[in-house]
Hints:
Layout: H1 13-21, H2 26-33, H3 38-44, H4 55-68, H5 70-84, H6 103-121, E1 125-128, E2 132-136, E3 139-143, E4 147-150, E5 156-161, H7 173-195, E6 206-212, E7 219-225, H8 227-239, H9 243-248, H10 262-270, H11 287-296, H12 305-310, H13 317-325, H14 334-355
Parallel strand pairs: 5-6
Antiparallel strand pairs: 1-4, 2-3, 4-5, 6-7
This protein binds iron/sulfur cluster.
Amino acid sequence: MRGPDVPAKALDARGLAALAANPGCSRRALLDGAGVNKAALASALGAPAAFGQSQFALTRGNAFETRVKADGGAVLLRLVREQLDPAAPPPERTYAPDLTAPGPEGRTARTALALREAVAAGGWTLLDHPMLALDVAGSPAFLEPDAVVVHPDGAWTVVEIKSFPMLDGSADPAKVGAAARQAAVYVLALEEVAGRLDPAPTVHHRILLVCPKDFSNLPAACAVDVRKQRAVTARQLSRLTRIEEIADALPAGTCFSPDLPAEQLTAAVEAVPATYAPECLAACELAFHCRDRSRGAGAVTSLGRSTRAELGGLATVEDVLAAARGEAGDPDDPVVAALRRAAALRVEALEGAACR
Ligand code: SF4
């Protein structure tokens, strides 16, 4: 579906968290499942995405992460102990097993083995960029947390290292929320690995967030409880329609290769149902394309999910206006009645203003 010779775009935890935030969107589920590069697709459709990290931010983030993990992870293990497990003995030595293996499947298997060995060995272990797999709508997504720490009691903690600053011990709540949603995806994937061990190790639902302290390059850390994000993501992922079912409903030969002419590509994308909402603008590369289509169709979803929910069965702006004018709709429907009352009040207000 992504076209011959087009490499698959791996689904990362950030993308998975965004996918889980809009579980009703078959378009995103199918494109992500097929490994389509949505940013390239959006550009080919003439509606390029307007978000993503700059090269400067990526370089700065990588440099900070290297610093946090220096000395075999000694600083990082100390932060985990301080914030999450102060009763545990301090790390006497740092142990960070080699996780290299061919391909994502190989790395996933190597990570599972390293986790099992670390639990059996006891002590502190740092898994630097392990690989985890999570089943998403019937196809595996491979995920790479910044780090996973195994505690002396065998419990596992996800570590997220971010480059936004922690000022006086607190960071931008929106950025912390995004990091928590991302970490919740890793927690779910780790729980799948833990579930295959007997006895199953504990996967902590408090993760460690590490950021630069104030505007320095020194690390500051805080524990973030991701129980709520974990529960929401698990529920949303379980609601995703299976990708095979979506694909079966498409015309044979549907292809999303960015090399195709724009009209052909537009037809392929439009063949897959989408549920646009303004939240897509911050989470999906296709947002500008879907917003144009949604507005063009007069869909009330482009006004926001809460407005959509309040309008009941009225799906387009045209339907809403017709109901308000008394030209359509069941007068016993509370939504229609409320719209007519609002329209009458508006007329009254305008007439009053004209008299004054
Ligand atoms: S932008 Fe489009 S494809 Fe992406 S989640 Fe929203 S509706 Fe779905």
